[in-house]
Amino acid sequence: MPTKKAIFDKKNILVVGGAGFVGSHLCDELVKDNKVICLDNFLTGSHDNIAHLLANPNFKFINHDIIIPAALENFPELKDFKIEFQGLQTIYFLASPTSSLAYLKLPLETLLVNSVGLRNSLDLAVKYKAQFLFASSPAVYGQAPIGRLIKEDYVGAVDQLSPRACFSEAKRFGETLTLNYRQQYNLDAKIVRIFNCYGPRLKLSDGRMIPELIRQAISNEEITIYGNEQSFGSYFYISDLIKALLKIMNSAEFGPINIASDWQNKYSAIAAKIIKLANSQSKITYQPLTENFQDQPLADITLAKEKLGWFPIVLLEEGLKKTVDYLTAQKDIRHPEDWL
Fold first, then answer.
1. Is residue 291 part of a domain?
2. The whole model's pTM is what?
3. SS3 for 143?
4. In the chain, at which end, N or C, are there fewer CB atoms within 10 A of the end residue's CB?
């Protein structure tokens, strides 16, 4: 591989989609030892997620839509990072709507960011000979058998014309594009498939199960579980995800690798914990599964355990408490970007 540019003091790391739920938590961790460029256009991200970082000299925010190529050397905000001399060492691509409410409202944006935007980001990786990580999704597996643990080589039935295909097909294409850039340019490009993750900085209006259950609980509304009393899934906390992303970047693995929890919890038990933590008077009801609450497959994380030495460690009740506390504090705050 060609010689990389010299690093003056700290690595320059670009987080595309850095003001989002996952991206902002990643920025928090990366900025401790690196210079971090957070690029976002606030399509689904939030200024509040990164406001606490703006005074840090090792953190720079660029308001930019990655659909348009980014000439980083031309941004005056990045002068201190010496991009023209040092370039970039690492790029994380996290720029995509991920909740079904978001990508069903923004189908074209979802398709374009995972194709045109991803290509622009990969071109930056080629230009600067940077490490690259593409955040994919279990949506690439298509229809998976209920209760089966899905390995990375599973291929399920896919309907490319379904309403949700704007996301699943975008991620499938994104993985193919990333792989071919890796092969064509000898690029250190990696792929992770992120399953159900939760934590602070999710929005109450997000629409995914845990923030929706919390929204209903703190409002003392009837809590609706889409499924029945025996329905179950697996969820893991945001800090565990951030550790996984750092581990794969420090490994020789390129993936794809499932990043998920192998702890299975009944939805009714999750709802009961949330009701207790929120001191709520809500009652639990059950409804047939709808399109917005389609179950994700359960992941086999053997590869992550064996190759990365990673598995989730934050207990559900501990993670839920932090998430309930955060979303309770956000309940009466309105934000300009709360378009959902």
1. no
2. 0.92
3. strand
4. N
